[in-house]
Amino acid sequence: MARRTPITLRTLLVAALAAGSPALGQTTQPTDLPPLPVPTAPPSGLESPGEAGRERGSEASGPGVTRIDPATMSLEALVDTARQLLETRTDENFKRAQQLAGIALQRDPRHLEALELMAEIQDMAGDVHAARQYYLKVLGENRADFRANLGMGRTHVRSRLWRQAVPYLEQALLAAPPDRRLDVLTLLAKAYQGRGDRTRAVETAQQAVALEGKTYAAWEIMVEALLELNEFDKAVRESQRLEQFAAQRLKDDPLSLENLQYLDRAFDLRISTLRIMHRSLLRVNSAGVPIAEVRPGREAEAAATLAEIVDISLRRSELQGLIARHQLLAFAIRAIEIEGGNPANHVRLGKLRFEIGDRQQAAESFRRALELDPGNAEAQEYLAALQPAASAR
C-alpha cells in the first residue's frame, strides 16, 4: 500500500489592513422612555428578605459563589453574584441570576447596574421587548450609558429595525471601551447597510476590520456593501484579503476546526463575490436582465473570473473534506469508548488524525491498535510513515 500524506492547503500571506476611516458623528438619541414595570412579589426559588432567608440561603455553583442568601446581601453583591452565575451558562444558574436581579430591583427600582443586568438577562432569554424596557429605563437616568445603548442597538439590529438601531449604536461607539469597539462597529456597519447607507457601512466596516481581533462579519458587511455600490473590483480585493487573513489563521493553528470553518466562510464569500463580478461583465437585454453573452472587450476578464471561481471551489472542496474529518473524530472516539478492545476502531481514529495532520495523536492511535493486534499491517504501515512523530514522543 502506498504511503498516504496528510491533506494540506495552500497558505497565503496576510495583506496589509485597511486604514481606519474618519470618526462617526453623533446622532440625537430617541426620547421615548416608557415606564418600566418592576416585579411586586419576591421571585420564587430564592429566599425573600426575612428570617427564613437568613436561616437557609441557597446553594449555587458559580465561580466564587458557595452560598446565596439574598437577605444579607447588598445591592452590589446581588448584581455581582448574578453576573457570576450567568458566566456558568447553565439553565439553573440563569434562573437564579434572574431572581437575584429581580430582588435587587425590588429594593431599588432605579439601580442602574441591576437594570442593565435585567435587560441583558431578558435579551439572552430572547424577550426583546422586555430587554428594551429595561435598557430604556437606564437611558432615562443616563443617556450616554454604553451598555444600554449597545443593548438597544443590538436588539434593533436583531429585529432588522435598522434606522432605530443607528442612533443607539452611534452613541455606544462614543462611549465604547477599547475592547468593545469591534462589537459596536460591526453592529453599526450592519445597521448602516440595512438602512441603505452603503458608503457609511463600508467606512465603518473598514474601521472594524482594521482592529485587532477583526471578525468575519465585519468583512462580509464591507464586501456586500461594496457590491451594492457596484464597486466590484474593491469587493473582490476585500474578499481576497479576508481569504488571506483566514488562511494565515489556519497556518498559525492548522488543527483548529474553528479556523477551518472560518476559511470555508471566506471561500464562500469570495466565490459569491466573483459570481456577482462575472454577472456584471455580461450584456443585458432590454429589461436589464443579464444574458449569456459577455460585453465586448471584457472577454478576458470574464474568463479569468470564471477560472478563479473554479480554482477556489476546488480548494474549498478540499477544505470541506478536512472539516468533515474533524467532525467525524467525535464518532470515532465514541466508538472506542464503546468498544476499546477492537483494533479496527483505533486504526480508524488514527487514519482520521493522520488525514487532518495531527501526526502525534495519529501515532498514538496506531500504537494502541498494535498493542491489541501486533500483526495489524495497516497500523504498521501508517506508523512507519509517522516514525519521526512517533519517535519524538
How is this structure best summarized?
With 393 residues, the protein is mainly α. It has 17 helices and two strands. The chain has helices at 51-56, 75-87, 91-107, 112-125, 128-141, 146-158, 162-175, 181-194, 198-210, 216-228, 232-252, 257-280, 299-338, 343-356, 359-372, 377-385, 387-391, and strands at 282-284, 290-294.
- Report the CATH C-level class of the domain at 25-143: Mainly Alpha
Q: What percentage of amino acids are in beta strands?
A: under 5%
> How many helices in DSSP terms?
17
For CATH, the homologous superfamily of the domain at 25-143 is named as Tetratricopeptide repeat domain
How many strands, what sense, and barrel or not for the largest sheet?
2 strands, antiparallel
The N- and C-terminal alpha carbons lie at a distance of 26 Å
